[in-house]
């Protein structure tokens, strides 16, 4: 940036005020008060899971309110400094302005996360595509990438269910990622991810293309009355966890396979050694999948009305990860790309995630 003008500051101030207004902070303050009252009840810690959810939501709301106030305070102070400076001194304020702008851009992402379940935790599943060991290894690389991303965001990631590949990698894995706006930020990671590299499993070290599919659904709380699951519609089986084992996989028969008879949807949970806990987790996943099914029906109806038609599934390729003959990760929807593929695979996804959020 060569010059800094008053019009730039005025525009930024207007944008900051618009973003803060869009976040309905007064409603969130009211919600914070309700949660705070509940947290002081005598039996608050009787349901530890519910207590965790409430405290997490309180922390997130407080952080959002505090950050909005801080940014507003800083832009007002910056404008005061700018107005009080001489013309030849104003360009010295550019680094401070760029820092403020960067901070605001990160905060502004919240403006695009207004969907009903955007603040929710997320169930993220990874499925290896065709290609045997190569695809299984790629699926495991993706699983590690999302776990590392969650760590970078200060979120918690647990492996709910995992089936390991015959020789290496994983056939499928399901993660429960807990964090404010986890679903809103990650929902557009759903689709097909394509890897191009020299094969580490081929004696000729040939170039290989592998695919893996990612599915993303929100964690829907028990008190959400929009989705009702009847007990007579469930077929519940206790099964042994599949795959070759490992520290994350429960090898006992407490693992649960749950089938929703009307839709044929089957889910698994093998995270816990307690069968009742695995059943509860499986029901949470099923609830989210039924919500996803209804969303897809609505989307398809809208596409039919608009005359749009797009085949879902493996053709829905969203991002390429090229490790040979050059290094490039490119998102095919936003055009965001980087040559630092190793950093992306180590969880540095925020540039891609933020661009997707702003795309909606």
CATH topology of the largest domain: Alpha-Beta Plaits
Question: What sort of overall outline do the alpha carbons produce when their principal axes are compared?
Answer: globular
Q: In which range does the helix fraction lie?
A: 40-55%
Content of β-strand: 15-25%
Query: Order of strands side by side in the largest beta sheet?
Result: 2-3-1-5-4-9-10-11
| Overall pLDDT score | 84
What is the chain-wise order of helices and strands? HHHHHEHEEHEEEEEHEEEHH
Please work out how many helical segments DSSP would assign.
Answer: 10
Work out the number of β strands.
11
- The termini sit apart by 29 Å
Tell me, what is the CATH class of the largest domain?
Alpha Beta
Gyration radius over CA: 23 Å
Integer count of domains: 2
Pfam families: PCRF, RF-1
Modified residues (N5-methylglutamine): 247
Protein name: Peptide chain release factor 2
GO molecular function: translation release factor activity, codon specific
Report on the architecture of this protein.
- The protein has 360 residues and is α+β, with helices and mostly antiparallel strands.
- It is 44% helix and 21% strand.
- It has ten helices and eleven strands.
- The strands form two sheets. Strands 2-3-1-5-4-9-10-11 form an eight-stranded mixed sheet. Strands 6-7-8 form a three-stranded antiparallel sheet, with helices on one face.
- A hairpin with a 5-residue loop joins strand 2 and strand 3.
- It is globular.
- The two termini are 29 Å apart.
